[in-house]
Each structure stands twice: as C-alpha cells, then as structure tokens.
Amino acid sequence: MGKQKPDFVGKRSLTRPDMLKPDRKQLVGLLPVNFNEVLEEGAQIVADPAVPVPVPMLGHVTSSYWSPRVERAIALGLVAGGRARIGTRLHVPMPGRSIEVFVVEPVFYDKEGARFDG
Fold first, then answer.
1. Residue 94 half-sphere exposure, CB side, CA atoms within 13 Å?
2. Where are the extended beta strands (E) located within the chain?
3. pTM here?
4. Sign (positive/negative) of CA torsion 18, 76, 108, 1?
C-alpha cells in the first residue's frame, strides 16, 4: 500500500489516535531459543516470568508452526510495542516452565520478495 497516494481504503483508520500509539499491540515474529519447540497458539507473552502473579501480559501467540523451509519452529504474536522490541527476548510461560523467544521481523522466508512471480 502506497501511503503517498492521496486516498486509499483504510487511510482514515491509520490516522486514528490508537493506531499511532507506540505501545499498541503489533505483529511480530517469534523464534523460540530452542529451535525445535513449537509454541502453543493463544499462549501469553511476558517480559519476565519470574515476577509475582499476576504477571503483566505483553501479548499472545497468534500462530505457531514447524517450518520445513526454515528448518525450525516459527511463530507470530501480537505484542505491546512489538516493533520496538525486535531484537529482544521475551518469555512464553507454560505450566512448570517458561519458553524463551527472540522477537524478530514477522517475515521468516524471502523477506525481499524475490520468489514472487506475480
């Protein structure tokens, strides 16, 4: 979508105050530190699982799969201030343990779009 266009569907929505908040939930990629560990969809994402309950939630896992193409587990999540957290580590608490994840861009393969034939 070219934001330089004078008008486009959804333009008004992008200028709403809630869409401009830096701490709003944004889509990010999640890579478990243990590359074989597929996260549970819907699982909560936190900064520090060791803080006392109730643990402040930053977001949740929206989808998670094993990717044969990138040969590891990959996931997407909605995280508060997500883009600013790229390059950091967060945690996905599970019963009896916590799964550490790297926050990355939400594109895992062919980021440049070189394989697109369209």
1. 13
2. 25-32, 44-46, 57-67, 72-80, 89-94, 97-104
3. 0.82
4. negative
